[in-house]
Structures are given as C-alpha cells and as structure tokens.
Specification:
six-stranded parallel beta sheet, about 50% helix, Rossmann fold, Substrate Binding Domain Of Dnak, Chain:A, Domain 2, about 650 residues, five-stranded parallel beta sheet, binds FE(4)-NI(1)-S(5) cluster, alpha/beta
Length: about 650
C-alpha cells in the first residue's frame, strides 16, 4: 500500500487517472503533486486573523519566543487556527441540519406534498428523546413539535442543546465539569469566531475548551439532528445490497449522479427516475432506461436507504466525469470540487448546482426548493435525458464494480442483536467482554489525493479486522471500503480474525459496518451510549475499548467530528501532518489534557503502522482498565460452529471475569 507511484490505491480509479494522463486531463492528483503545502501554514504557525500580518511564527524556540505583531504566541495562534476549523466544520453540518429541520416543518405544516413522514416509529422515538408528549396528537402535530424543538437548538442563547441528555450521565457530568456543554449551535459557532478574532481569547487551553464546546454542538446537535430528521422523513436504514465503483454507470442508459450532502432532492430524484413517463421519455431518446448513482455523502444517504449504487468518495468526482458516461451530475453543498465544472466542458456532462447557498461558474443552476421538490427533480432528470444523445464515445469507460451491504443504523444494529422485542447491545458487549471482539474502531473521514487515495483506509480496514477489531465506517471511509469490495460478509470469512469472524457469522453481518454519511457519525455516538447503558463495559463513553480513525482527512468538518468524539471520550487518530504540529503546547492539550478530562484525545499521525500501534494501545489499555480478559489473538474460532444466540449467551456469561467491575 505504500507504493508512492500510485495516485489512487483503487484500481479502477488508478486506471482512469492513467487514461487522464494519456489524454492530458488534469486531476486533483496532479494538482496535489504540483502544489506542495506551505509548511508554516500546514503546521498552524501562520496567523492571518488581522491585516498587520500574516505573521509567521517560526524560528528557533518558536514555541517560547516567536510573537506576532500583536504579541500572540505560537500556541495561541495554533489553537486559534484549530478552533476556526472546528467552527467551520460545525457550521457546515449544522446548516445542513437546519435545512432538514425546515423541511420537516414544511412537511408537518402541509406546505409540501412531495415528502411524507416515512418512519413514524422513529418520529415517536425522537419525540421521546425530546420530551414531547405524543398522546392523542396527530403524526403531523408531533412532527411539527419535533421540528420546532430542533430549531430551538440553533438559536438558543442559554441552557443546553436538547440531545446532550442522550449521552451517558457520567459523560454529561464531565462536560459540565469542564465547561464544554454547548448552549446553542449558532451561539457556539459565533463565539468561536469572536474569540479567535484579533485581540480576544489568548489562552490556548481556554480557546481549545471552547473549540470542544463548539464541536459538541456539531456532534450532539447538527449531526444528530440531520441523521434523525433524515430517518424520520426518508426511513431509518436497514441492510440493503448495492454496488460500488465506476462500473455502476451504464453505457446504454441515462446516467445521473447525485453528489454533495443534503438528501432531500436526491430522495426526490430516486422517486422520479422510476416514473414510467420518465423511462418512456428516456427510451424516446435512445436510452434503455435511467440509471442513478451517487458520489460522496449524498451517495451514502441514498445508498443506505435505497441501495442506489455509489461511484465512490471525494477523489472520485473528476474521475466519474472522465468515464464519459455521466449525463448529469447534481451538486448541492460541501466537498464539491469546483474543478468539475471546467472539466465537464470537455465531456458532454452537465453539472447542475442546486443549493441557494452554492453556485459554480460554468455550471447550470436549478435551485432546489422543498415546496416544489418533485417538479425540480423532474426538470433535472429531463435535462439528463435530453443530454444522453450528446454523449461522445471518448471517455475511459471503466466497468469494474463490487457488491456491498450497507444500512447499519443504530436501530438496526440493536434489532439484529435480539429481534424486534428483545433488541439490545448485549451480544456486542458480551463479545467484547469475552475478547472475541478486541474493540471497535470508527473508520471515517475523507479520501485524500495527497496519499495514494483510499489506500490507508484499505490497509487499516484489513489489518483491524484481522486483529478482531469490529469496524464501523462512515462517509468517504465507507466509500473507500465499498469501492474496494470490502463491505461484504465474505470479507469476514476471508480476512477477519477468528473471534470477530465467529461473531459476524453468528449475527450474519460483515466485519465492516457501513453506518452512513459523515453526519451519521452521530450514530456511532448513540451506539457507544447504548453500549455504556447496556452494562459490563464502561458506564460512560470514555474508557470504552474504541478508537476513531480518519486516516486521509482533509475537510474542516472532519476536525469538528474528531473533536466531538474526543470530548465525548473517544481517542481519535487522524492521518497526515498535524494542522497544529508547530505547537507542542497545543499538541499536549489535545492529547494529555483532553485525555485526563474526557478520556478522549486527538492525535495526528502520518504513519499508518503507527496509527495501528496507537489504536491497539488504546484498546488494550481500556480492556485492562475495565478488567476484561486480555485479548489473545487466535483464542477463539478454533472449533468453528454457528451458534444460536442462546448458546452464545450461555458461553459468554460463563466467561465474564469483569462481573461487578465498572
Ligand atoms: Ni465527510 Fe462527506 Fe467525504 Fe470528507 Fe467530504 S464527502 S461529509 S468531508 S470528503 S468524508
């Protein structure tokens, strides 16, 4: 995997990159090679919050001696830079959540007929979390109250955001003790920008503490709200089969790609492409049908709920166009490379921007409005069909694709461990306690053209499952695994360690569980909370044998996510160079101080092998602290037999040395 000649570790992607080179098309991989990062900015030592600078805090003993014109020290500057990244990431997820809340409100008030509440059970569950009484109320009344309650979270000035109370009590107590419990989402983002502007907050620890408060507003606010409203409106995911990679495009059908992050319009397009009139219209233009595919996190949303195939993650967007088979690509917000508009002109592809917040020179703008969602979706699909006859023959026409299984929501994971009435997290906790599963890793975040893209994800995923670590993946981490063919139950048979394999076979799950888009990292927070409530492991999120890894991260959103996991009690390891690597003090706060306060941490480690070492260290020391059986590779699975749930319970309750120990 360390083959530096490769630009992408994904074979199909690499083939298109080679084709692009032969045909002189530029990609993000070329630009990544040409544009070397500035080492001062890369490590957080450049301050540009005012126009006396930019001040570059470098030189010998910069940590102690370097000063900006105002006198700001290196730790102040590095901490400010990180807090601004957290604020931007939180703003992105949370603005998405706000739009979801407005859509829910519009549906509840009957302002749009195009959406309906698909998962009433989830609506009631969410109403319960929010303390809304559902007795004697219509579904729409409950939905309206839920939407309004969520909207309060954005503008609240005092108090706490609603969902903090979904965390284990002990985790909440830590937040209160250390002053990181968020009040309102918008308030924390605004305050982060205020505190980091020239001449305000200069204490690195104080700054970073507010950074964590902002990040928690993202995780337990923006992200969790997005996930829950999407489930209410479009259905809570359950396992579904699908396919991944460039081979999902069809030469004889109209190909439409939904790319970006917000699921509402994509959901409408899913409906519209199967309308008989649309299919007839496509046939009238010479196509055999209409084929829908996804890219980045919109892909994950429609993949999880409908099995719509994915062409992959962030670094695949230009390559998708270069197949020559994409008739329309719609984009809304986040992680959209502006390069695709220019590139599309060299093919027949039409790029359509759909968000009122985001336009792109060279793209067609068809603005989404939830009140006319279906009408807009039809306009887009029609435009794609009209563009089909313009398809040229050139293009790389890659045909590889892999099967996958996704759709592992919190609710489904609970259900699969005991059924509709006895769903629980007991079997998972027991498997960890017994040492069949060594620990759990959330493998998340972007794919990145600065490394052979998707390569570190693939390497870590295979190593982790080989060592009996259950992997839950989100975002482009999931896309990296999916386009490599890793999201199948067979992966357990071929690569998982014997203990993990036994568990996967007994429950019938893959060893890498795709739990959703990046906002669905919130599902990992609630899964961890449920594991804490189930008992036998830690009674808070901190101290669980679990680690978060974002090996190829690039987005500010990833930093916000990493920080909300750290503040919730999860040690997190990011790949690549540290954006605050210039300051020892800031690095110490993020690793040692945060660990002391929250049992979480944020590390940056470019070496994939060291990422693994650190992961096992955290997992094994958490096991030791919980007095669980020491993990022994190969201990289980010698005699392989499929066990019933009852068999397994018996076996594992006999092997519970921790009993009574918290
Ligand atoms: Ni997450 Fe989704 Fe991908 Fe990174 Fe971008 S698509 S929100 S930020 S690049 S994982």
């Amino acid at each position: 995997m360390a083959d530096k000649i490769l630009k992408s570790a994904n074979e199909a992607a690499e083939k298109i990159v080679e084709w692009a080179e032969e045909h002189h098309f530029e990609t993000c991989f070329d630009r990544a090679q040409r544009l070397k990062p500035c080492p001062i900015g890369e490590s957080g030592a450049c301050c540009r919050v005012c126009h006396m600078g930019p001040c570059r805090l470098v030189g010998q003993d910069a940590e102690e001696k370097a000063r900006g014109i105002c006198g700001a020290t290196l730790p102040t500057v590095a901490a400010r830079n990180l807090v601004r990244m957290i604020a931007a990431g939180t703003a992105a997820h949370s603005d998405h959540a706000r739009d979801m809340a407005f859509t829910l409100l519009a549906v509840a008030e009957g302002e749009t007929k195009d959406f309906e509440i698909k998962d009433v059970k989830k609506l009631y569950r969410v109403a319960g979390y929010l303390g809304i009484d559902i007795e004697g109320k219509s579904v729409n009344t409950v939905a309206r109250e839920v939407a309004l309650k969520f909207l309060e979270d954005f503008g609240r000035q005092k108090g706490r955001i609603n969902y903090l109370k979904r965390a284990p009590k002990k985790t909440q107590e830590r937040w209160e003790k250390w002053g990181v419990a968020p009040r309102g989402i918008d308030r924390e983002v605004v305050e982060a920008m205020h505190r980091t502007s020239i001449g305000v907050d200069h204490d690195p620890d104080h700054l970073l503490t507010h950074g964590l408060r902002t990040a928690l507003a993202d995780g337990w606010g923006g992200c969790m709200i997005s996930t829950d409203i999407s489930d209410i409106l479009f259905g809570t995911p359950k396992p579904v089969k699908a396919e991944a990679s460039f081979g999902i495009f069809k030469e004889d059908e109209v190909n439409i790609v939904v790319h970006g992050h917000e699921p509402s319009l994509a959901e409408m397009i899913v409906d519209v492409v199967s309308e008989p009139e649309m299919i007839e219209y496509a046939k009238s233009k010479g196509a055999k049908g209409i084929n829908l595919g996804g890219m980045c996190c919109t892909a994950n949303e429609v993949l999880m709920r409908h099995g719509i195939p994915t062409a992959g993650g962030f670094t695949n967007q230009e390559l998708g166009i270069m197949t020559g088979l994409v008739d329309v690509i719609t984009v809304d917000v986040q992680c959209i490379m502006p390069a695709i508009a220019e590139l599309s002109k060299k093919f027949h592809t039409k790029v359509i921007t759909t968000s009122e917040k985001a336009k792109m020179p060279g793209a067609i703008h068809i603005e989404y409005d939830e009140h006319r969602a279906k009408e807009i979706a039809r306009e887009i699909v029609k435009l794609a069909i009209d563009n089909f006859p313009n398809r040229k023959t050139e293009g790389s026409h890659i045909t590889d694709k892999f099967p996958l299984i996704c759709g592992f929501s919190h609710e489904y994971i609970e259900y699969m461990q005991g059924g509709r009435f006895r769903g629980s997290f007991r079997p998972l906790n027991d498997a960890i306690i017994a040492g069949r599963i060594r620990g759990v890793v959330g493998l998340a975040g972007c794919d990145n053209p600065r490394v052979p893209s998707t390569g570190i994800h693939k390497y870590l995923a295979t190593e982790l499952i080989k060592n009996d670590v259950l992997v839950v993946s989100t975002g482009c981490g999931s896309a990296a695994c999916g386009t490599a063919g890793y999201l199948t139950p067979e992966m357990a048979l071929e690569h998982a360690g014997p203990g993990l394999r036994e568990v996967c076979e007994a429950i019938g799950i893959p060893p890498i569980l795709h739990v959703g888009a990046c906002v669905d990292n919130s599902r990992i927070l609630t899964i961890l909370s449920a594991m804490a409530a189930e008992g036998g492991l830690s009674d808070e999120i901190g101290g669980m044998p679990g680690v978060g890894i974002a090996p190829e991260w690039m987005s500010e959103k990833a930093i916000a996510i990493g920080c909300y996991f750290a503040a919730s009690g999860v040690p997190v390891i990011f790949g690549g160079e540290s954006p605050v690597g210039s300051s020892e003090e800031v690095t110490r706060i993020m690793t040692e101080v945060w660990y002391e306060r929250f049992k979480g941490a944020l590390h940056f480690e470019p070496d994939p092998e060291k990422i693994l070492e650190l992961t096992y260290k955290y997992i094994d020391s958490a096991r030791e602290a919980l007095k669980l059986r020491k993990y022994e590779p190969g201990r289980f699975g010698v005699e392989r037999k499929l066990m019933s749930m009852a068999d397994r319970r018996k076996l594992e309750s006999a092997a519970r040395p921790h009993e009574g120990v918290k």
